Amino acid sequence: MSTPPARVADPGSGLPADHVLETLRAQPAIQRVPTPKLTLFARRGFLDPETCAAVIDRIDARRRPSTIADANGDTAFRTSETCDLDSADPVIDRVEALISAFTGLDRAYGEPVQGQRYAVGQEFKAHTDYFEPGGEDYKIHCRHTGNRTWTVMIYLNQPGAGGATRFKAIDKTIQPETGKLLAWNNRRPDGLLNPATLHHGMKVRSGTKYIITKWFRERPWPRPRTEPDA
Ligand SMILES: O=C(O)CCC(=O)C(=O)O
Ligand SMILES: [Fe+2]
């Protein structure tokens, strides 16, 4: 008796991860953080300094206070500023294309790229990027597009001091460096959410830190309507 095949998501969603793992492993100069607890890759110099500077300009022009999905009562939990970046802008469009080509993740499954700006003393305390199933925020944010699968993050500059990203469960701290990309799977190999992805955007001690993040989902992200109403 044959069992029906399991529903296979589009490989570009990053769930299952095989296609993304194959694509990332084939990239020159990619580094994988050696741990069995999570899948975390780094690539130094992924984005050129000119593009990083152009994206920083856009973040500075449109930043607003950051929010968090699962409000936890700690008003100092995420003190940075945020900016949704417009994929109709050719600079952002190119960054999105580079991320997809590098990771094998299909940009159709990604949320709009988000910029973050951290001034001295600002941070994003330890959190996971996926939504906690069962909560109100999970219902609101995951109803249509499912939960987050992969996170791709790029440091746009190197602040004077501080601003590292600490993955507590594996005792690994990654230093910001202009153009360095991080990509991690928010899931375990069996597809379940991985709490070992807990990470902390640590306080900037001098200068300003800029990053962009693109989070991918189980299902395609709705595209903004551009056509006029009939
Ligand atoms: O700023 C960092 O190093 C981490 C940012 C982060 O975790 C996020 O935006 O989800
Ligand atoms: Fe995060």
UniProtKB/TrEMBL annotation:
Taxonomic lineage of the native organism: Bacteria, Pseudomonadati, Pseudomonadota, Alphaproteobacteria, Sphingomonadales
Keywords: Dioxygenase, Iron, Metal-binding, Oxidoreductase, Vitamin C
Domain of life: Bacteria
Names of required cofactors: L-ascorbate
Domain Fe2OG dioxygenase as annotated: residue spans: 109-218
GO molecular function: iron ion binding; L-ascorbic acid binding; procollagen-proline 4-dioxygenase activity
Entry-linked Pfam families: 2OG-FeII_Oxy_3 (PF13640)
InterPro entries associated with the record: Oxoglu/Fe-dep_dioxygenase_dom, P4HA-like, Pro_4_hyd_alph, Pro_4_hyd_alph_FE2OG_OXY
Identification of the protein by name: Prolyl 4-hydroxylase
UniProt key word Metal-binding: yes
